[in-house]
Amino acid sequence: MSGRPEKHSLTLCGHRTSVSLEAAFWQGFRELAAHRGMGLNELAVEIDEARLGDTGLASAIRLAVLRHYRGK
Fold first, then answer.
1. Quick one: pLDDT at residue 1?
2. Which of 34, 38, 45 is nearest to 11 (CA)?
3. Is the pTM of this model over 0.85?
4. Which of 37, 56, 65, 72 could be a cystine partner for 28, CB 3.0 to 4.6 Å?
């Protein structure tokens, strides 16, 4: 598994955006969405709306995945 970020497109409230995450985080993001019974775009909107200040979307997704695996 590569440590290089992979860019994927997501749609947030009708707007396309690109997010770069490492393969392990994409996998964790997919698993988190499946665990919550959500699609990736739906979960990305939720994460986007909850992020604070100048935190980027990719960082917010990484933190959500980390919290999921830590059980918090």
1. 58
2. 45
3. yes
4. 65
Rounded-to-integer distance, Cα 24 and Cα 15, Å = 25
* pLDDT computed for residue 71 by the predictor: 87
Tokens of 28: 């964790």
For 5-70, give the CATH class: mainly alpha
Task: Give me the residue spans of the domains in the chain.
Answer: 5-70
Instruction: State which amino acid sits at residue 70.
Output: R
Q: Which pair of tokens denotes residue 11?
A: 């749609």
Residue 40 near residue 10, CB atoms below 8 Å: yes
Q: How many residues does the chain have?
A: 72
